[in-house]
Amino acid sequence: MLWLGKDLYQTAPPMPEKVVTESGQVVYTRDDIQVGRQVWQSIGGHQNGSIWGHGALIAPDWSAEWLHREVLAMLDLRAQAEFGKAYEALDSSEQAKLQAEIKPEIRRNTYDPATGTIVISDERAQAIAQVGTHYSSVFSDDAATAELREAYALRENPVPDAEHRAKMNAFFFWASWATVTNRPGDVKSYTNNFPHEPLVGNTPTSSSFMWSMFSILFMIAGIALLAWHYAVYHGKEKPLVPPSTDPSLSITVTPSMRATAKYFWVVMALFLVQILLGATTAHYQIEGQEAYGFQLANYLPYAVTRSWHTQLAILWIATAWLATGLYLGPAISGHEPKYQRLGVNFLFISLIVIVVGSFAGQWLAVMQKLGLDKNFWFGHQGWEYTDIGRFWQVYLFIGLMLWLVLVGRALWPALRSKTHEARHIAGLLFLSTVAIGLLYAAGLMWKEHTHISIITYWRFWIVHLWVEGFFEVFAVAVISFIFVKLGLVRGRSATINVLFATIVFMAGGVLGMFHHLYFAGVTTGVIAVGAGISALEVVPLALIGLEAYETWSNSRATPWMERYRWPIMFFLAVSFWNLVGAGLLGFLINTPLALFYMQGTNLTAAHGHTALFGVYGMLGIGLMLYCLRGLRPDAVWKTGLLRGGFWAMNIGLALMAILTLLPMGVLQLEANLEHGYWYARSAEFMNRSIIDLLVWLRVPGDTIFAVGALLVGLFVAALWLSPGKVTQSGNNTR
Fold this sequence. Notes:
By secondary structure, the protein is mostly helical. The chain has helices spanning 2-11, 30-42, 62-83, 92-107, 122-138, 146-151, 162-180, 206-233, 255-258, 261-287, 302-333, 340-366, 372-378, 390-416, 423-439, 452-485, 491-509, 524-534, 539-542, 544-555, 565-588, 592-598, 602-631, 639-675, 677-680, 683-686, 689-696, 698-721, and strands at residues 18-21, 26-29, 50-51, 54-55, 111-112, 117-120.
């Protein structure tokens, strides 16, 4: 990763000192481009449309749309000069002639490294001015573009300062320039010809075709190898006879373990708020600026609701996992370190401060009340999933270091013991804790004016490696410990299985992050490694059904396992969504050729929703339920609420994907193939009646899902508000 990162640092699209015309007129300066990017970030950045395919889906991809508008403006100017009429009025042969003339000019790399200057024709500068006038209107309160602002879910006058709007145009131009300008001595652009724009030859490269084919072969070979290993080595050990009583009842709940209860209350609160914000964000696609007639965008713009929605998904899941680590530390070792409860409480307060402070800063930024000088540190960074201000990022990193210390000191006696049954599992759990704590530092590796390609590189260390890699290892270790503690799996067997799973997951998961970077201004080497290795991410999911069957068998091994039925049911759901969301829908968009046409469409949203909640969300809830069983051992579990919540959330998530995200994504894919990426993301396409219908079809799935989440929330609340009394046998089936 570091080696390819070095390559990216050296080959990222150049940031010019100035853009000038052949006649010597300065069009844009480096300061214009950098300040323009700051303006774009301050209004939400990736949460208002996208750049190079990364970002929100209602507004356009600004790099793709700018390119299309600029090309059309140049064609129209040339048509008026040569034929005396508009480009659209020409016949097909005349249009083809002009396209053939424009293509080499717009693709030619005129950047001079010695002077840092990009030279463009006077005609192109005139076209740029026309496009800039359009965008200056869109991001103001001009009545002429009011319908577009509504279609893009932009609030009125999102960038009040005219000078800021002009400089944001400079950033859009540069981002577009990088997508169509050939690399020096090459026939493909800095973004490997992304986005698709047939007018100027932005089509898939030969390497995209070649490595897409090889990635499929790698996946097939990996699955075959893993299936062989499973057939040869699996099940050779004699099954373990489960104990007659629940071993977890012997765990003494310490003060610090009891203090984790409030984390789980916050988990459910954040989860429910996230769903509410998700419904609000989806509704913006219907009314644009309103919610059933109320001008919501004036108070809670789309960029804010989507920022909070995506970040709350990470925050509530991470909070559930952090709390699980804090609960399991003393549970594994049987040791309560001095001041452990104080540390748990302090970390809890810090998490609340981070959430409230960072969210307040983002609202102030999007409403343009913070100023560009403070935005990077306290406002909205504009990078999807890493939007919070740098101050809050640093605070969160310190909090993770505190979590690492708290979990580590609680686990230490078990790690040092030569006879502890779960010593090796505890060691793997601790190593994953170290990785989770330290690797978040990747989010601190860029500065305010760092190149966007380099920011994208480090951002996916967080989005992909941190979440999809080390959290996965943490989850495998935690679940293995639970089964060892329950006496269903031998400690040695669990250790071997965790090590094997870690090796298999990380083999594809580490270098697999590069499939996010195919079009982020990087070279063919990234496509080769990303395509080849990321295909292996699917390999461990191929046998996930067998693992799920084993989990199910363990859950039926002895009558007292009924106490853990619902935590295990959520673990089973993790297996299902791992296969469907992460595996099937993930590989659908994984190869370079597929991603060329699908990046930034609702097909990526289908993968994101089913993988993030289906895998990590379900796992977070399952871990929470296991901890709650120990925290409230005498409370009656109202399993009817859990049963309803479990099935409602799974059915709702499936309907969300099947009724809306997948069909909408397929329609966008077709539009991209026929017309170009700009059209698949355009207001013209997104305002079609079929798209409106598909958006409304989210209502059944979203409603069922929300009801399921509410039922789980009521269950958690009932454990304290209406705990009841467990029956004498210890088995409650209400």
